[in-house]
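User: I'm preparing a small set of examples for a lab meeting where we compare how different chains pack in three dimensions. I only have the primary sequence for this one, and I'd like the structure in token form so I can line it up with the others. Please keep the answer compact; I'll paste it straight into my notes.
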Amino acid sequence: MVNAPTPAPRLDVGIVSAGRVGTALGEALAAAGHRVVAAHAPSEASRERAERRLPSARLGTVDDVVAASELIVLAVPDTELPTVIDRVAAAGRPGQIVAHTAGAHGVGILDPIARGGGMVLAVHPAMTFVDGDQDAARLASSCFGITTADPFGDAVAAALVLEIGGTPVRIDESQRTLYHAALAHGANNLIALITDAVSALTAAIDGPHHLAEQATVDGGAAGLPEQILAPLVRASLENVLALGPSALTGPVARGDRATVERHRRALETLPDPGVALGYRVLSARAAAAAGAPADLLDSTEVQP
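Assistant: Understood. Below is the structure token output for the 304-residue chain.
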């Protein structure tokens, strides 16, 4: 007779604090069968969020969360993390699992807790959070950068990520900052890029000869600039993730210096000079990736 596999232990989970990341992780862990028993929610917004999305959690102080929990998730801003770690170390007990979600830090920052006998994990979801119901669901398709102090901790971190549907990716302690910089560059700076493109396209649509009313594309709710950009940007993102730099098209890829120069002059007419600056910098990066002629961007290079 074959014995059924022993299910993984269900843990009493505490969240410090109930911001966007902590709440989403709490929801995902609860959906995986763990018990979210306590949460620290210092602001009115976080209390409302926790009451709505973590209904089984008792709200209290950091000490209350530590006392109630077997797994403590520290989802606080990097600037607050050392202070919170010291508080958890002072109130904690040996055998507790403490995981932080800071992308740029490994487990070294958790040394005060490790010295007290806690198991320390760095578990960073490579995902953006918008404080909506979709946040927890997105974790199931996300990679998590995990860094641990030993093989046992590695197994625990990987198991927790797999339980909520994510993919664990091991990041060396020494490479956490570079890992996080890459994610911020790709995700946060993408927002700046698209915002600039929307600004320029809005100016083009609302130029001196624009129609009194513009039709929307497919009856969508977004503004017309966003609707024009959306299919192009989505296709470009999919292409570069699949094909790398060879996905580049447009005037830079063609070596069309005259068009690039006209783009620059047009963007410099906008009220915000940062749009043209961003175009110049990213065009230079695109040219390097495409192997464009060395003099393609002579007139658009950024001055030191």
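A couple of notes for your slides: Residues 211-221, 299-304 have pLDDT under 50 and may be disordered. The first helix runs from residue 20 to 31.

User: Perfect, thanks.
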